[in-house]
Design a protein that fits this description.
This protein is mainly alpha-helical. It has helices at about 15-25, 30-35, 40-65, 70-80, 90-120, 130. The N and C termini lie far apart (about 55 Å).
Length: about 130
């Protein structure tokens, strides 16, 4: 039932679809009402610029190969393994930093999970030197 209310169900030429496109592309006319309500305007415009840069980078990947199924996994590895250069280099560098941090977090979680399982097998406990070994 919620699928019927998703953005893909909006008429492409409707006002709501236009507002969503403007919002994701960071068009200032859509942001202006928020700025007038006393919300941190600089932060809103910074976030809009980040969304716009990311969306344009995704669209560039999709346009480069129309047969390519663009997904978050594809972008994760493509942008992580490809040198950041060209007009979207800053956006790609931010993605690389985010993905690298995410990989480190996952590795730490795996290590800590392994330590926890190991300690469960030794209810009396272990010294740190034995545990590290």
């Amino acid at each position: 039932m919620l699928k019927e209310m998703g953005p893909s169900r909006l008429p492409l030429d409707g006002e709501e679809a236009g507002l969503l496109r403007a919002f994701f592309l960071g068009i200032e006319d859509v942001m202006t009402p928020l700025l007038d309500k006393g919300i941190n305007g600089a932060e809103i415009l910074r976030q809009a610029a980040e969304r716009r840069a990311t969306l344009l980078a995704v669209l560039e990947v999709a346009a480069a190969d129309p047969q390519l199924a663009v997904s978050s996994d594809l972008l994760r590895w493509l942008w992580l393994e490809t040198p950041a250069e060209g007009p979207r280099a800053e956006t790609q560098k931010k993605w690389q930093a985010f993905q690298s941090g995410d990989i480190v977090r996952i590795a730490y979680e795996a290590i800590l999970g392994q330590i926890q399982r190991f300690l469960e097998d030794h209810p009396a406990g272990l010294s740190l030197s034995v545990l590290v070994d």
